[in-house]
């Protein structure tokens, strides 16, 4: 299928609108990399340079962390994961996968 590459982009066989020079594909969806991010094939919000993906969800790594695919609170530099839960290493410990 022919299309105008100045206004359209082909994402895995699907013609999508081109936003600007920041247009990229995420699966079959086009997105603007200045406002969005692709997390495992899903377009998600971009939170600035601290943006990371936790599975298919984006998050601000200055306030949250990803523990085994689960978003959890961040406790500053002392944050660690204990299984699927985050904790503050200055006040708690991880005991066999449970915060204690």
TrEMBL record:
Residues 3-99 form the Galaxin-like repeats domain. It comes from the Eukaryota. PANTHER family: GALAXIN-LIKE, PROTEIN CBG12054-RELATED. This is Galaxin-like repeats domain-containing protein. It comes from Volvox africanus. The lineage of its organism: Eukaryota, Viridiplantae, Chlorophyta, core chlorophytes, Chlorophyceae.
């Amino acid at each position: 299928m022919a299309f105008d590459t100045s206004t359209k982009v082909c994402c895995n066989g699907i013609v999508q609108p081109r936003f600007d020079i920041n247009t990229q594909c995420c699966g079959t969806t086009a997105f603007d990399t200045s406002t969005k991010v692709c997390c495992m094939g899903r377009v998600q919000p971009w939170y600035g340079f601290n943006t990371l993906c936790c599975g298919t969800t984006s998050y601000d790594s200055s306030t949250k962390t990803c523990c085994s695919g689960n978003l959890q609170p961040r406790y500053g530099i002392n944050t660690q994961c204990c299984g699927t839960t985050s904790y503050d290493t200055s006040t708690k410990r991880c005991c066999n996968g449970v915060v204690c």
